[in-house]
């Protein structure tokens, strides 16, 4: 806390400076002035918290200085020193709201220290009151939607600040024995088949849900935050309704809107700033939707309802499924997956993310052991993985897995029917000879015939006794020689064969034929 001394008598200034234990009092003597004018200048620079000032000063008396100083910092405190007991000075000091009025003739340093400590405590109290007022005004100024969003996100709010705002919003709310609860409401749009909803539709449903919550639960509903992209609403509740009451409300909503909702409900907490952590618990409870039909009320338990560790039976089935995929025994894989579903539906449930990871591993395993996985399906595969991680139901995840496994099985069956490998290679050669005018890749052919690139490469080399690229370049040089014999220029030939410049064509020709194309011109 900053202190300033204004005194024209040097001995008095020196006495005050030396006799008072400034650091012990938590104060810092920042400046001294010997007249009113100098005091005014130094005050503007340092803006002290407390000023000890004599009345009788040269150039500007103490009262004039105080009046001027108040215009720069109204909350500074002043202790007036004087040699006079005249009531005129006392009245003027009172009018200026000075903190204390001390006669120099009776000045006692211990007494002055006590006065300084008292004034310092008063300053601290005033600052605390001002801070609380600023906080209250700041919280009051925040719109409700922003307030609840910041509260849920744990931004800028202590429990005290939150309660101040809540009491402004709901004056009847009790300040003692508070009981809060976090709810996360999930709109079960997946239950409606072949019906699409826009975000505007979802917002409309959200408004209706909140209206019904206010109407049904009254002051128990405090507020909430919407999460439209996930069809969710995060509510903070007070004076907790009974579970039976909540279930009847959920049934009423389903009857009114034709759409079921599920609710994850946290345990009770008393400190408002704990909404964030309890909201996460309520959201985690909704993961149980993966195993259940819609319209469920999930209540927080001491132990997490979701397990992060696979049971021995699930681990055993996982191992067996991977082995059977490697043997392409898809019927056995299907049977094991159905058995696994029974295991997964028993409690404690395995966390849905772990199940999705496991099913994704099965998909990659299926693709890796199947040579007939067409390159055109690479994009489809990525989309399938996205769908797997977005699905909200175990039955849907199983369907995605089994449908893709059936796709691969059918492709394998199709390839088994192609006994004449030579016919496949002949078709590839025919395609090459019909497209010598451009760059040709095996990827392009694989896309055309819906077969795997690496499989076609091995098949071509096995039958043709040369690599695919080697064959393409050989056929291009054959066509080039034919065109040269027909009088075409090398530049024209290179363009006809899809080369951007003559030098690229020449390098290719020399690499394949062992000499430059000019050796094959009629003139040579």
TrEMBL record:
The keyword GTP-binding does not apply. GO terms for cellular component: cytoplasm. Keywords: Cytoplasm, DNA-binding, Phosphoprotein, Transcription, Transcription regulation, Two-component regulatory system. Pfam families: HTH_18, Response_reg. GO terms for molecular function: DNA-binding transcription factor activity; sequence-specific DNA binding. It comes from the Bacteria. The keyword Calcium does not apply. It is found in: Cytoplasm. InterPro entries: CheY-like_superfamily, Homeodomain-like_sf, HptR, HTH_AraC, Sig_transdc_resp-reg_receiver, Tscrpt_reg_AraC-type_HTH. Its main location: cytoplasm. GO terms for biological process: phosphorelay signal transduction system. This is Uncharacterized protein. It comes from Paenibacillus baekrokdamisoli. The lineage of its organism: Bacteria, Bacillati, Bacillota, Bacilli, Bacillales.
């Amino acid at each position: 806390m900053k202190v300033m001394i204004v005194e024209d008598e040097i001995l008095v200034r020196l006495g005050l400076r030396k006799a008072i234990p400034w650091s012990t009092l938590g104060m810092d003597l920042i400046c001294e002035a010997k007249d009113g004018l100098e005091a005014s200048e130094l005050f503007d620079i340092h803006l002290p918290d407390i000023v000890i000032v004599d009345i009788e000063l040269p150039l500007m008396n103490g009262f004039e200085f105080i009046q001027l100083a108040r215009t720069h910092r109204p909350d500074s405190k002043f202790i007036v020193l004087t040699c006079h007991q005249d009531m005129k000075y006392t009245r003027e000091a009172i009018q200026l709201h000075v903190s204390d009025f001390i006669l120099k003739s009776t000045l006692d340093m211990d007494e002055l220290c006590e006065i300084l400590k008292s004034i310092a405590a008063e300053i601290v109290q005033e600052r605390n009151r001002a801070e609380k007022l600023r906080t209250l005004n700041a919280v009051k100024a925040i719109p409700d939607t922003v307030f609840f969003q910041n509260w849920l996100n744990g931004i800028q709010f202590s429990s005290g600040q939150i309660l101040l705002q809540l009491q402004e919003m709901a004056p009847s709310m009790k300040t003692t024995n508070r009981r809060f609860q976090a709810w996360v409401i999930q709109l079960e749009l997946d239950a409606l088949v072949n019906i699409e909803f826009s975000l505007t539709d979802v917002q409309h449903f959200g408004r209706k849900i909140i209206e019904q919550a206010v109407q049904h639960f009254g002051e128990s509903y405090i507020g909430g935050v919407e999460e439209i992209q996930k069809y969710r609403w995060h509510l903070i509740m007070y004076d907790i309704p009974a579970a039976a009451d909540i279930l009847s409300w959920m049934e009423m909503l389903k009857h009114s809107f034709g759409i079921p909702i599920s609710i994850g409900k946290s345990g009770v907490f008393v400190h408002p700033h704990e909404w964030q952590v309890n909201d996460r618990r309520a959201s985690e409870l909704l993961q149980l939707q993966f195993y259940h039909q819609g319209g469920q009320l999930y209540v927080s338990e001491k132990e997490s309802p979701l397990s992060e560790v696979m049971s021995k039976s699930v681990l055993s089935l996982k191992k067996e499924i991977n082995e059977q995929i490697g043997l392409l025994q898809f019927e056995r894989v299907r049977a094991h997956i159905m058995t696994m579903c029974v295991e997964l539906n028993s409690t404690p449930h395995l966390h849905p993310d772990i199940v999705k990871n496991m099913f994704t591993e099965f998909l990659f395993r299926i693709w890796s052991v199947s040579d007939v996985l067409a390159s055109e399906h690479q994009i489809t595969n990525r989309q399938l993985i996205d769908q797997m991680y977005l699905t909200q139901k175990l039955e849907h995840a199983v369907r995605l897995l089994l449908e893709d496994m059936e796709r691969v099985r059918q492709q394998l069956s199709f390839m088994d029917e192609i006994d004449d490998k030579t016919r496949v290679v002949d078709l590839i050669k025919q395609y090459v000879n019909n497209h010598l005018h451009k760059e040709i890749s095996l990827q392009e052919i694989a896309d055309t015939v819906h077969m795997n690139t690496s499989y076609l490469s091995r098949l071509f080399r096995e039958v043709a006794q040369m690599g695919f690229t080697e064959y393409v370049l050989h056929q291009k040089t054959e066509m080039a020689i034919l065109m040269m014999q027909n009088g075409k220029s090398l530049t024209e030939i290179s363009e006809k064969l899809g080369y951007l410049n003559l030098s690229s064509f020449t390098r290719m020709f020399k690499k394949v034929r062992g000499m430059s194309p000019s050796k094959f011109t009629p003139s040579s």
